[in-house]
Amino acid sequence: MSDLKVIVGGSLAEDGAAFVNAWRKAEHGEASVDHVLAFESWEALSSVMTGERLRLLRHLHAHPEPSVSALARALGRQYRRVHGDVAALEAVGLVVRADGAVRVTADTVTAEVQLAA
Questions:
Q1: What's the rounded mean pLDDT across residues 92-113?
Q2: φ/ψ (deg, to 5) at 81
Q3: Which residue segments constitute the domains of the chain, with CATH numbers given?
Q4: Above pLDDT 90, what percent of the chain?
Q5: What is the DSSP letter of 47?
């Protein structure tokens, strides 16, 4: 697994500069395996990362589950809600369902909140 950086805010120019930097590293044969998840605003992040979803991620990191049903039982939550949480986290790349298991995609998640617009 890897580390994932979550960025909140930032501009299109900053995103473009990061892309160009990664491109230049690749041209010179340097590995550039930064895993970044960017959100336009705090509201966008908080619509994905709730307290229950963080609890779900922590559980999955320690105990990958064979299915969403098993995960719901382990968390003591309703299947429907856990399924929705897994789908939301999977859509942004924090969870993967593959090879008969539900698991997280990173060991650590670091958040950076940019205050300047």
A1: 86
A2: -70, -40
A3: 2-113 (1.10.10.10)
A4: 41
A5: H
